[in-house]
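Is this the right way to post structure tokens for a design question? Let me know if I should format differently. Anyway, here goes:
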């Protein structure tokens, strides 16, 4: 697990390092400059014609220090200083003077020429206003220039908290993240401007400040520790009995995908409760599953199934008929086992949110439109302030919620925000959400907590998408390919081949 910080958290960590640990600010600035130099050299970037664009804050001070390091290595860097020297930070003023002492070219106008690399050191974190005037003109000019583009910490113009763009933003090929990744460079659209993110340690530890690990993500190396263990003397009963209430007439595919995903995630036994018309096709597609069907609402049968199941998944392809509404309502009122609610189950739930108020064993997996119905915010509002609104939701309802998007987020009232960084555009296909619901349910059946099952399921689901894209490219991946990839990913964990 690794923390992802807001700009404020990073500044707090920086201040702690300076004031409490006694590391001078200029020393940290030198470390930052050295870290960027390491990346420039490791990436074998042509440094012969370098332009460093500096603002008047400490990000600009980092840029001025980089210019000096380039100069000392025998290069002839040029500095375009677009900040206000009268309002410059003390560290920035110091670095400016040092650069002049070394005879480095520092000017306040742009000279149009071919640069091999352009380094963005204009704003860094903390920007809270639209980029206007000569700053906007400068960034727009840089974006049409050739050469490799590198940002320090976060591209100038990207909100460090939301990833939104403040009018315009520098489009980097590489962003050197100092100490930690910043939330704005991870979330869309900011991540598109950040390019490839490379984290470099500069001696700042965020765990010394309150709330610094409130937003986090996982890496591949974390996966073995996230998955449930499987003993060699186990039987199917050790890995949970799953009830999938899925698939109205004509939606057998949703039942198949979610149930097979639960099995492939490790569940011991899966029973599908579905519309009678789906029986034959599901028996042929997934003979490993128990198939139980309905033609109308049957609370006696439902109670029997609830008593049998260790975990319940409800909603994938369920439809929004009167029967579906009755099934979901009954499940919310009487099911004692943990419930994963997806798809149409969420759409039904949106009409009767009181069902959630005292239900403490629920996982919700809404995409942005479904979340909009649940929370009464527009999709655009959710995209612009996803972390804030997701936090509000789990404070109002005692659930674990995975808000699905290009960067899926998971939250509950007893933890921080997990941001998933696996997955890709190939997964934007019908049935992908059914697979995710099945994976989460399968992990939950094996004893993981709601939160751990949800986070790990989302992480795995994205890894499956990445694996499937390698095999089939961006266009041709199907939801069923994600299930095939799940086996490969989990096999890799067992073989220690991550």
């Amino acid at each position: 697990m690794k923390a992802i910080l807001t700009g404020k958290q990073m500044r707090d960590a920086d201040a702690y390092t300076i004031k409490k640990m006694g590391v001078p600010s200029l020393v940290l600035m030198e470390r930052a400059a050295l870290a960027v130099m390491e990346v420039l050299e490791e990436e074998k970037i042509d440094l012969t014609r370098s332009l460093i664009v500096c603002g008047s804050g400490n990000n600009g001070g980092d840029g001025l220090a980089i210019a000096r390091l380039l100069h000392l290595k025998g290069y002839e860097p040029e500095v375009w200083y677009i900040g206000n020297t009268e309002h410059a930070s003390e560290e920035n003023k110091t670095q400016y003077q040092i650069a002049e002492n070394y005879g480095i070219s520092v000017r306040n106008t742009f000279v149009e020429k071919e640069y091999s690399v352009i380094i963005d050191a204009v704003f860094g974190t903390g920007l809270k206003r639209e980029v206007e005037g000569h700053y906007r003109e400068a960034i727009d000019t840089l974006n049409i220039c050739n050469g490799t583009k590198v940002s320090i910490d976060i591209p100038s113009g990207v909100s460090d908290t939301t990833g939104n763009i403040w009018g315009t933003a520098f489009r980097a090929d590489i962003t050197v993240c100092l100490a930690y990744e910043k939330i704005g460079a991870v979330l869309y659209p900011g991540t598109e401007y950040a390019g490839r993110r490379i984290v470099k340690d500069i001696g700042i530890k965020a765990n010394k400040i309150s709330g610094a690990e409130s937003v986090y993500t996982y890496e591949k190396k974390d996966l073995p520790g996230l998955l449930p263990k499987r003993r060699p003397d186990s039987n199917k009963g050790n890995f949970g009995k799953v009830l999938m209430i899925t698939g109205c007439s004509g939606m057998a595919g949703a039942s198949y995908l979610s149930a097979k995903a639960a099995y492939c995630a490790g569940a011991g036994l899966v029973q599908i409760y579905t519309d009678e018309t789906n029986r034959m096709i599901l028996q042929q597609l997934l003979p490993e599953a128990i198939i139980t069907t309905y033609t109308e609402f049957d609370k006696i049968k439902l109670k029997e199934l609830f008593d049998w199941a260790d975990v319940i998944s409800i909603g994938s392809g369920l439809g929004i008929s009167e029967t579906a509404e009755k099934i979901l309502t009954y499940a919310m009122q009487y099911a004692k086992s943990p419930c994963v609610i997806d798809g149409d189950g969420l759409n039904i739930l949106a009409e009767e949110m009181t069902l959630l108020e005292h239900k403490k064993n629920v996982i919700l997996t809404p995409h942005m439109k479904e979340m909009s119905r649940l929370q009464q915010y527009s999709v655009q509002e959710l995209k612009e302030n996803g972390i804030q609104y997701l936090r509000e939701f789990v404070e109002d309802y005692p659930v674990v919620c995975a808000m699905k998007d290009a960067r899926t987020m998971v939250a509950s009232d007893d933890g921080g925000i997990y941001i998933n960084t696996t997955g890709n555009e190939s997964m934007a296909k019908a049935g992908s959400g059914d697979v995710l619901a099945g994976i989460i349910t399968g992990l939950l059946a094996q004893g993981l907590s709601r939160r751990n099952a949800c986070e790990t399921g989302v992480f795995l689901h994205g890894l499956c998408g990445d694996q499937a894209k390698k095999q089939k490219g961006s266009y041709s991946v199907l939801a069923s390919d994600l299930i095939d990839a799940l086996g490969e990913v989990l096999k890799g964990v067992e073989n220690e081949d991550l």
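Format looks fine. Someone answered above. Worth noting: The mean pLDDT is 96. The domain at 2-213 is CATH 3.40.50.10260 (Rossmann fold).
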